[in-house]
Specification:
Elements (H helix, E strand, L loop, with lengths): L1 H24 L6 H25 L4 H18 L6 H8 L3 H17 L4 H17 L3
Helix pairs in contact: 1-2, 1-3, 1-4, 2-3, 3-4, 5-6
């Protein structure tokens, strides 16, 4: 049961973070009110998920540790600690290699002029922060 609960929690956070990332990617397709409403709904779902995780974090230590990691990622999303939902998703799913690859791609894109220096700096800081929190 603990494995199923962990898998469901991972799936739920991945779905919500993907939804946030997709919303950011398609921002031009929404008018401002529609964008803000959709983002608010997604953040409300994240907040609800955070509350559910708080209730679940009693019992099995392994499950508690894993749920605490997911809870931390959820809190980060809500507090906008990560401006880039894709980076937050990789952090929540504990994917340090994918984060390192994203870092290399970010640095390459800045060098090639595909990404502004400012955006590149923000992403690099987020990725390095995520890696540090994962102790990877």
């Amino acid at each position: 049961m603990a494995d199923a609960l962990r898998a469901n929690a991972r799936d739920q956070i991945a779905r919500l973070l993907t939804q946030l990332a997709d919303l950011e990617d398609a921002r031009e397709e929404f008018d401002d009110d529609e964008y803000e409403e959709t983002k608010a709904e997604t953040l409300a779902q994240l907040d609800s998920f955070k509350t559910s995780l708080a209730r679940m974090t009693t019992g099995d230590v392994t499950l508690t540790n894993e749920l605490e990691t997911i809870k931390s990622a959820t809190l980060a999303a809500i507090s906008a600690a990560f401006k880039t939902p894709e980076i937050l998703k990789l952090f929540a799913l504990k994917q340090p290699e994918a984060l390192r690859e994203r870092l290399r791609a970010c640095e390459r894109d800045v060098l090639l002029g595909k990404m502004s220096d400012a955006k590149g700096k923000i992403e690099r800081v987020e990725i390095l922060t995520a890696l540090k929190k994962l102790q990877a």
